[in-house]
Design brief:
single chain; 199 residues; alpha+beta; two-stranded antiparallel sheet; 7 helices; 32% helix; elongated; binds protoporphyrin IX containing FE
């Protein structure tokens, strides 16, 4: 199975780190139990898992500089003069790692989002992986739901087995969309009742 091919919206590398993975799977087994697959309605009850997705999107936003936008008039942003017809990039990758905003910014710690009202839907300017304002991601709600459902389903239904070097490597190749340098290629072993996979 090649998760990289299908998982363009999300980098799974941090999620696969052992202690986080164990906690996510334990929560999935408790909320979804093991005799059925994950359903959309389960996501609201997967609090730790939701925090993990925020933590991944903070450090690895799929579109690191958002979509370049031209200014239609001259303006000032935080004391900087920006002229008309300038192309503006919003560096959400940098914002997600800003030590003025995040304690230990490079630490992957989903717990920081537990009990916090910060979400990724464009209301909190510290965390904007889907953009904000008039030109925010038009598929925001769909993309957000699909990422949760897709990743939760994979983690619940299959035991991960990725080579160590792939899990340890968190380097990325920049561009319009961020990609892992090492492809996340591994094997997947079913972990639920065999009959479920035959339907
Ligand atoms: C998790 C998956 C997705 C991520 C991470 C993502 C991310 C983004 C980002 C960062 C932007 C730029 C926002 C800005 O400049 O402020 C954007 C724009 C956009 N996205 Fe998404 N997106 C996702 C899923 C989708 C889906 C599923 C659709 C369509 C069904 C979609 C359609 C669009 C469109 C049309 C725009 C351009 C909006 C505009 O310029 O007015 N996206 N997306």
């Amino acid at each position: 199975m090649d998760l990289d091919e299908e998982g363009d919206c999300i980098s799974l590398e941090d999620l696969m780190r052992t202690h986080v993975y164990r906690k996510v799977v334990a929560e999935l087994d408790q909320v979804v139990v093991k005799y059925r697959f994950v359903e959309d309605s389960d996501i609201a009850n997967l609090h730790y898992f939701q925090a993990v997705i925020k933590a991944v999107l903070r450090l690895h936003p799929a579109v690191p500089l958002l979509v370049p936008r031209p200014t239609n008039e001259a303006c000032q942003i935080q004391g900087y003069n920006v002229s008309k017809h300038c192309i503006v990039y919003v560096n959400v990758w940098g914002m997600g790692r800003d030590p003025k905003v995040w304690d230990n910014p490079l630490e992957f710690k989903p717990e920081r989002f537990i009990g916090s009202s910060i979400d990724v839907l464009g209301q909190n300017y510290n965390l904007l992986p889907l953009g904000a304002g008039r030109r925010y991601c038009a598929g925001m709600l769909l993309g957000h739901r699909m990422v949760h459902l897709y990743v939760a389903s994979l983690l619940h239904a299959f035991e991960r087995d990725f080579p160590r070097e792939v899990l340890k490597d968190s380097s990325e190749i920049g561009g319009i969309a961020l990609k892992k340098t090492l492809r996340l290629v591994g094997t997947a072993k079913p972990r639920l009742a065999e009959s479920l996979y035959r339907k």
